[in-house]
Structures are given as structure tokens and as C-alpha cells.
Amino acid sequence: MQVGERPEGSDRRHHVVVVGAGFAGLNVARRLGRAASDTPLRITLVDRHNHHTFQPLLYQVATAGLESDSIGHSVRGLFRRLPVDVRLGTVVGVDWDARRVELDDGASLDFDTVVFAAGAESADYGIEGVSEHAFMLKWIPDALRLRNHLLRQFERVESHPELIEQGALNFVVAGGGPTGVELSGAIAELVEHVVQRDHPNVDIAKVRVVLVEMMDALLGTYSQASQRYARRALEERGVEVRTDTAIEAVEADEVRLSDGERIPTATVVWTAGVRANPLADVLGLEQGKGGRVKVAGDLRVPGRADAFVVGDLAAVTGKDGQVLPQLAPVAIQQGQHVADQIVRLRRGEPTAPFRYRDRGTMATIGRRDAIAELALGVKLHGSLAWLSWLGLHLLYLVGFRNRVAVLGNWAYAYLTYDRAARLIIELEPPPGDDDDRAQGAHR
Amino acid sequence: MQVGERPEGSDRRHHVVVVGAGFAGLNVARRLGRAASDTPLRITLVDRHNHHTFQPLLYQVATAGLESDSIGHSVRGLFRRLPVDVRLGTVVGVDWDARRVELDDGASLDFDTVVFAAGAESADYGIEGVSEHAFMLKWIPDALRLRNHLLRQFERVESHPELIEQGALNFVVAGGGPTGVELSGAIAELVEHVVQRDHPNVDIAKVRVVLVEMMDALLGTYSQASQRYARRALEERGVEVRTDTAIEAVEADEVRLSDGERIPTATVVWTAGVRANPLADVLGLEQGKGGRVKVAGDLRVPGRADAFVVGDLAAVTGKDGQVLPQLAPVAIQQGQHVADQIVRLRRGEPTAPFRYRDRGTMATIGRRDAIAELALGVKLHGSLAWLSWLGLHLLYLVGFRNRVAVLGNWAYAYLTYDRAARLIIELEPPPGDDDDRAQGAHR
């Protein structure tokens, strides 16, 4: 069949448009695709990337532990055997009356049911200089940019040791949540295991890794015992943990803290907050904290039978009265729930409310060290938690091939203390100039 | 030891500076490093990338067959166990009187002996529009840029099928040497095996892969039988082979050929020529064709006892009176030879002339198909040549881990007809905007 000859107008099947191929959207589309043999449905999945990004492992790409391709999976590849149309594009608006979503390339998609699963993005809370000078860690290019930058700092001080006094080897991570804990631990281990061997001329005692958290403890949602464990484990690895400290401003060559200290640095990584995808702001729907869209118990938009919001984009109240956290398990369960509700509605059955089954959370700190808080009050620290973390992340990782590749990388890193992916691959070569050094100390 | 405290002045060992970590430079440094236990030598290897690039497989990265990190290897990682200092930087000049090379970051390196192994770069021969509009294939970012672009063309025609008439699915490869043959075959297979399954709405009969060669045959240095075999094998895969045809000009939306035809296209890949690294032009030495530096039989600069030039940068005449081709085996053998001569000179022995042992050349065309012309007149076509090609490239690939990764990718691709690395990872995200679609149809 030729492009453009798709029987758009003649296809009478109920058309579900899913916006976003993160954990939530992927699960909506996959489960609907499997149901489509029984229930006549046309399914279209739209995403602005051609790949699903496994965001929990971005920090390992940033610290040279994993290759970027291992944590992404072609969206088209995932739906080869399911009746799901994939479309590359960014949804920029919705026409509720016409039941149509609008794409940035001028095209649009008519829907009978729409599921918004567009996720979240980094939020700078208006703090001066964050958007200009800080590194974010949300997509694969962010991780590659940070990896290039980290590795380049050590190369720069080989030629210009005076840059150490200007903070070239000070690495500041903003935000003491799981991402900040994992990233600062991983940077400390990169320095200890890799930089020390790669750069015998660099005194790694001059490296500072500083983790800054506004609240009085790391890992705010964890138990106090786990919080203390994380702090101690990071400090043992040489990370300076600064709780009760806010970032006042980020500048090109330093960061200003709320206690008045200024740390000279070329590297601030911002993991301190997320807000809903800006798409949430143009849907014309009621929004809660962080811009998330308020939804009813069955995850539908209040007052609309044909629209669901799921994952990080949705504000859903759990049984404890708190809004559910922006985590992969929540997104996965919500995606599956919405697919089931769409099938029920097509069969004329009523929807069921969503209930989150919390099986626990985990954060890794470093080599053979992690924290796991599981169901029934089980708390693990250390090696066993780390093994659980490895297993769970392999399980969640999309694609058999990626699992093999990641397992191989982890085994290699574990056995050799090495990081294979430590190439500086320039992301922004100047046009018509293949000499990447011409960029100098770009950020 | 702290940075800056290196005993530069007090180190009385003979200092060899090797410029370039390609096949030639890597082999000089490795062999010298191994000899340094017997012969007191200080060795410094300078490269503008922090990794060695295995250029023969760049076309596989560009066509989503291999992940980029598999064909690069950290230079520092290669020299952890050898007494070789690694320096990231671009050499921009030499002061022959002071015996010093100058780096782009303002630093310089004093040498007792210098080996220039800075390689070659793409040459556009002054043809209009090549440097502005054509894709090159020399470094990993080039390959990633081409991969993103190729994959994006198919995504674009999903939304805008009218772009097919404007040439969105016309892919033109300029140059019928091994790289052009391998790349055009790989694009044709990408379309047949991957695009057809990923994009069921796209009519792949509309795809054109055109290989343009100025001379009257592909693979100019091969036998006529091999040349004919390559042409037929490519044509069977749907590649249009246009010999006796020159590229007159490349424009943003078309390419003009010497026979007057204009092919509308957004994709011209330039593999039609190389010239010596621009460093050759500032050394003040006599240059031959393509800017290559003329050297004596022992690979030294005529009239200088302390300077060698090797690899693609050097013009060396073989026993048949022809200048040796710019191939990996030549570079490897020259690198080893120069290391040996430096050791001989340190021992007060005379240098020996370089003799190239030609063990043959190979080019792959596609799945289970290649051409090999080996020593003693052995010519292989088809499966056996392909297996030889696989084995040889695994052998030349630097690093045990890379070999395992590449072998794994090849096995996966062979068994599944799939290409794992088909992620569009934006190289040039607009600052402060993580929406990569905002770039539109960037080239």
C-alpha cells in the first residue's frame, strides 16, 4: 500500500490515539494492541522520539557505564507484531470539539478516544541560571552531553591544571531524590575506578562531588533508616552531602548555595524537580501541583467520556490521600488500567477505578550497594538490595536485546571496574568543521 | 602525583611524540610502549578525539547495524598498562627549530622524535555544494548524523507522503570505492529488511539508492571480475549503479550529474575522495597528490633524522612504483615499522626501508556477500568472502569488548534481519529546548 492511500475516511473502527511512548503510553498501546483481535480498534501511538527511553538508567549513560542505545528501544520495533500505528511527532494541542490532536508538523489526528501520556520534564522552579547553565537528565542526548562534559573536564586539567582551582573538578548534583543519589554515587565511582587509572597525572583527591538537597534528608519518601544509610554510603564514597541547603543561583563558573557558600564549578546537574509536560498547559483541563492534570478515579478527564490522562502527566490521588509519585510502576499500572477501561467501554461495561499496588521503591548507590523498600515493610540495604535493583531494572528494560546488552555491560563493569562507554562523542560539531576541539570548553 | 608537577624538565629520556591515534599512530605508540622496558623512551600520543575510531565500520553505524560505541575505543584505556602518556588535543603546527609541536589549546609538546600520523579527511575537490549539503563518513558523529537523517526520512514521509516526489526517499552515494559500495549495499538492505517492516505504510518501491562513480567501474583497484561481481550484486539489491558519471553539484534539494540528470534528494553521502589532514599543509614539507607528505624509504622526512610520517598522511611509493593506498593494513604496518626504526636509531643502528606486505583487500556488499582479493591471486566472491571479511574486521577491531559487542550485533542482525541501533538521537538539540521536532527537517 502506498503512503497517503491509507483508508482514513473509510476506517470505521474506534480510533484510540495514545500520546507518548513512555512507560504509561507504551503499556496502553501494547495492551490495546493485544485486545484488538477481540475488540475492533484502530490504535495510533504518537511520540516525539522514535524510541522509548528507559529513564531510570540515564545516569549510567551519563557516567559511561552503559551505551546510549542500550536504554532506548525503537518504538516501531516494539509494535511490529501488533496492530498499532506509530507516528513520530510532537502533539502541540487538542481540538476537543472536533476530537482531534494537532501535531507540530501541521498534521493532525482524529480520535474517538485519546490517552495523554506525555510525561514530565525537568523543572527549574525559576531558579536563576538553571536553564542556561545546568545539565538536565531526561533524554538520551542529555546523558551523552553530560558524559562528554564529565570526561572532558579531566582531559582539560591534563593540559591546564590551573583549571582545578577554578572548579573544573567540582561536580555539583542538585536534588537528593533517587536520581541525585544514584548520579552522585556513580560519579564518585567513575572517579575512583576509571579516572584514577585513565589519568595517573590527575590527583583525584582534588575532585569534589557535592550533592545538594533542600530538605533535611536524602530520599524524602524513604524511611529514616534508609535515608541515613544512603547518606552514610555516599559519604563513604567521598560524596559531600549538603542537606538543608538550597541552590540560590547557577552561574557559568559557580553555584551559589543558600548558606552563602559559592562553589566554583563548571558542572551542575539538575535533578531537583520535574513538572508536567507543557502539553498539560494547553489542554484546557484543571491542573494540580507541578502542572499535572487532575483526573477522575478511572483516570478519565472529569466530564469527558473519551479522554484519559496517565503517568507523570496525571495527578491521581492514592488511598492515603496523597498524589501518586511520578514513578515507572505507577505509569505502567495506569497504562494497563486505561487499556482495560477502553476495552470495557467498547463492550458497554462501566469503568473501574484505578488502584495503585505499591510493590516498593529502590535506589542504587554504587557497586554492590543499594536501598530497597519493598511491600510488607521489607527494607533491604547493601548487596541484596543491589541485586534486587539489578534484577528489577533488567526486567523493566524494554527489549530482549537491550537486556542482554545491559547485563553484559554490567558484568563487564563489575568484573573489570572499568566503564566501556567513555567516548567523548561530540554532539554539536560546528558546521563544516570536523575538528571538535574548535568548540573549546563548551558546556 | 599532582597535575603540573610532572618532571618535564628533569626527564632526560628520549621523548617521542606521536600525532594521531588512528591505525598508524596507535601501532607506533603500542610497539614503542612495549619496547620502552629495554630502551629508555618517553612516549606521548596526541589525538583530537579521546577514542580510536574504527573507520571501516562507520557505514554500519550509519545504517543502524552497530552502536557507535562498539567501533570506538578509549585511547587512555588502550594504554593503561603501557608507559604511554595520552593527550587530548589537536596539533596545529610544528616548530622545527625548537623541536616542538603546538596544540590548539595553546599548549605545546617538546619532542626528540616526532611521528605524524594524523590521517586523512574527506575531500570535496571543490565541487559545488558538497561541503554544505553532503554527508561525510569519517568520524562517529558523521555516522550518527547520517543514521538520524536516513531514519528521519521515512518518518517524514509517514506524515507527508508528498515529500517522496521531492526526493525524500532518494539516497545518493557519491563514490564507487569500497566505502560507497558497502554503504549503498547497506542502505538497500536497511530498506528491504527493516524499513519495510517498520513502515508498512511506506511503499519501499519508491525508494531509490543511487551509487555514482566517475570512473567506468566500481572498486577501481580490484580485478575486472570483482568489479563486475560488485556491480551485479548491488543491482540485485536494487541499487542503481551509475558509472562514468560525475557529480557536478549538490544542492539542498537535488544533485546534478554530469550527464545532465538532476536527482531530487535530501541525502547525498560523499565517499568520493580523501585528502591528507590539513596538518600536512602547515608542516612545511614537500607534498604529493592529495596533500600527502613525501617521505624517504624508511618513512622519515627527507633531510630530518627526527621526524617520521606514516599512514594516510604519508605518500610512500610501493615496489610497483605506485603510491601506497590509504588503507588500514598499510597504516598498521607503517606504524610498526616506524616504532622499530626509532628503537634501532636509539641503539645506534641504521634504519631499514619500509616494505608493504599486501595481504589483499576486501569489501562487503551485504548479507552473506562480499569480495575478497587475497595474496597469491586468490579471489573470493559471495559467502566465503563475506565470512573472511567478518573475521578480518573482528580481528582488526580494537578491544576485546568491542569485538564481543560487534559479534553480538552481527549475530543478532543475521538471525533476525533486524537492526538494533535504529534510534534517532538528536545531535544538535536547540539550546534550552528538548523538543527535537522543533528543528524540523534539519540536514
Care to describe what's here?
Two copies of one chain form a homodimer. The first copy, chain A, has 443 residues and is of the alpha/beta class. Helices cover 29% and strands 22% of the residues of chain A. Chain A has ten helices and 24 strands. Chain A has helices at 23-35, 58-62, 75-78, 130-133, 140-159, 178-198, 224-236, 328-346, 383-396, 400-416; strands spanning 14-19, 41-47, 51-53, 72-74, 84-88, 91-95, 100-103, 108-110, 113-116, 120-122, 170-174, 208-212, 239-242, 247-250, 254-257, 262-264, 267-270, 274-276, 293-294, 307-309, 314-315, 360-366, 369-374, 379-382. In chain A, the strands form eight sheets. Chain A has a five-stranded parallel beta sheet, covered by helices on one side. In chain A, strands 13-12-11-17 form a four-stranded parallel beta sheet. The longest helix of chain A is centred in the middle third of the chain and has 21 residues, at 178-198. The first copy, chain A, is elongated. At the A-B interface, strand 5, helix 5 and helix 10 of A face strand 5, helix 5 and helix 10 of B.
Rg of chain A (CA only): 23 Å
Helix-strand category of chain A: alpha/beta
Strand content of chain A: 15-25%
User: Percent helix among the residues of chain A?
Assistant: 25-40%
Q: Give the biggest beta sheet of chain A.
A: 5 strands, parallel
Oligomer classification: homodimer
Total count of strands of chain A: 24
